[in-house]
Each structure stands twice: as structure tokens, then as C-alpha cells.
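Let's see one such:

===
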Amino acid sequence: MNAPRAILFDKDGTLVDFDRTWGPAAGSVMRRLAGADEGALERLWQASHYLPGEQRFLQTSPLIAGSSRQYGPLWADILGRVAGTEFYHEVDRLFREEGERHLTPLGRPAESLARLHALGLPLGIATNDAERGARLQVGRLGLEAYLSAVYGHDSGYGSKPAPGMVEAFSRLTGLPPGDIALVGDTRHDLDTARAAGARAILVRCGPGPVDAFAHEADLVVDTVEQLADIIVGQADGAAR
């Protein structure tokens, strides 16, 4: 694959360790929402396909790739809440707080992004997390100096797998979608790239296997560090 001219990264499962960050964070969020209602808490666990004893999600969980707008109505119904903006904002706030508390990077993402940024590549984040929470984590991980954009599900471009975030990045950079790569760890990321006409790069470091759809991607790597090695190597080869 020829090197892309710009890259959008998914966040969770790509740059952030999903299980070690969101496993304990989600457990805390569900407990805070349920309060003293143990029955509601157990129903939240069941609906979220969450294993509280192990603090992790099953592969079938709607939270692995979904946004609060997507799983929120289910949670609201369990809690007897109104499924609307106020509730979704509350969920996003709680996840922002708990996500910061448990934030764990995958490898050394700042180092990898710095190497790609040094090549002159515009870089961005496209996540189904809320933008404010994503920016908070980006700052904590030391990534902000390398990013031209951070898009969340509430940034005005829709949630993945809709193509809006890639299209927004295309307008921002002035590059056609075909010159942009979306790097992620789920089927949502692959479908987002394809819907936008962008290149799809999958990483194997997320919470679930990508083998079933890996053949549909333009490139599959183990980690973002490995991707940086490949792209920097291609640039060095071209320079020689």
C-alpha cells in the first residue's frame, strides 16, 4: 500500500487500551447511574454484555464501538430515565471522569504520532467517544501537538460508521478521501472508511479479533507503532 497523505486514528483500542481503560471505567459509570438499585445495576451489566467480576466487556457489547447516543436509549429504559440529550450528556460526563481516572495508553502513542507528524502528515482522531472526553485524553497522552482535528460523536459529523468524520477531515486538509487512511480496530472503523472512500487500516491491538474482516482492509498491522515503522520506512526509502 502506498503511504497515505493524512491519517485519522480511532482512539479506543487503537491508541488507548480499551479493556484496561473502559472496563473499570464502565463498571464505575454503571454503578454511579444505578445508585442503590442493585437490580438496575445488574440489568445494565446484562444489557451491556459486561462481566463485572472481570471488569471487561464481551465481544457482543454495544459499548465496544457504539456511542452514548447508540446504547443510551437502552440504558435510559433500564433506569427509567428519559432517553434524550440531558441523559446522554450525563453519561458522557461520567465516562469522561472515569475514563480519565483509568486512562491507559497502548504502547507509546505520542512517540508514534510524533514520527508521523514529522513527515508532514496531517493527523486526527475520529472516535465515538464524546469530543470533550476525547480531547481530555488526548491532552493526558501528550498527543495534541500532533493533531489537526479531534472528532467525537457529538462534534456535528455523526457517529461511526457514518462517513461524516472522514469527510470533515477531507475538507479540513483539502485532500480527497482516497488519500486519507482511517486506522481502527473494529468493523465500524472499516465500514466508516469504506463509506467515505478512504483507505482502511486495521490494528490487532483492540479488544476483539479482526480476522473475520481483515481481508477487506487495505492494510492490517499489530499496533500503531508498527504502522509508523512502515510509513517512516517508506518515506526513508523514497528519500534515498
User: Anything to note?
Assistant: Strands lie at 6-9, 50-51, 56-57, 123-126, 149-151, 180-184, 199-203, 219-221.
